[in-house]
Design brief:
Rossmann fold, 7 helices, binds flavin mononucleotide, alpha/beta, globular
Length: about 190
């Protein structure tokens, strides 16, 4: 199977990125990841496990590849490398703006631009609140191009009991939006009475 590109940008929600990569690797789905410099700063604020340790753990999987954000020669910077699409999780408003305007100023943004030009699935998980008109207009422009805009909102009707429950739900939604089968089952878990 073609790899899924996972972009980690500097919005709050590093735990979403970690769980997304793990959920894909647990199913032997190849992952190519890149993480912006800002995302590594946010990770340091939010996570107990240092980013380099998480990276070392993921690298134990033969299905995992990582490229630094400055590595514009990485295969995912080119449309000739086939992929199963890309998820940016979490996605900062800065990265939303850069993708909406085709800036491609780091590998994450370029890989997203490649998805757009090649007509591949692109899922953004933007986290910010409140949203300004600029944020909303950028998201609308991308949604009109077929990009899935999937804010990390909990499903309160599923009665989440922990942050982990909410993370599991959001990650399953984001991966399902890439069209990968099998992840939608998780959306039902913990529904009251089941
Ligand atoms: C601890 C921390 C939390 C942040 N949370 C957010 C956020 O939730 N959403 C957002 O859009 N930016 C957030 N930012 C700001 C971005 O990291 C900043 O705009 C950065 O330039 C984004 O760069 P990137 O898009 O290349 O990752 C946060 C920054 C820090 C240090």
């Amino acid at each position: 199977m073609n790899p899924v590109v996972v972009g980690i940008s500097g919005a709050s929600g590093s735990v979403l990125a970690r769980r997304a990569i793990e959920a894909l690797l647990e199913r032997d789905i190849p992952v190519i990841a890149t993480c912006s410099s800002a995302a590594q700063m946010v990770w340091q604020e939010e996570m107990e496990e240092p980013f380099r340790e998480a990276l070392a753990r993921w690298r134990e999987s033969p299905h995992f590849t990582y490229h630094t954000p400055g590595d514009l020669k990485a295969p995912i910077a080119s449309g000739t490398t086939p992929t199963a699409g890309m998820v940016v999780i979490p996605c900062s408003t800065g990265t939303v703006a850069a993708i909406a305007h085709g800036l491609s100023s780091n590998l994450l943004q370029r890989a997203a631009d490649v998805c757009l030009k090649e007509g591949r699935r692109l899922v953004l998980v933007p986290r910010e609140t409140p949203l300004s008109p600029i944020h909303l207009e950028n998201m609308l422009a991308l949604a009109r191009l077929g990009v899935t805009i999937l804010p990390p909102e909990p499903a309160f009707y599923l009665h989440p009991r922990s942050v982990e429950d909410m993370v599991e739900y959001i990650v399953a939604k984001a991966i399902s939006a890439l069209g990968l089968p099998g992840f939608d089952e998780r959306l039902r878990y913990r529904r009251r009475g089941e």
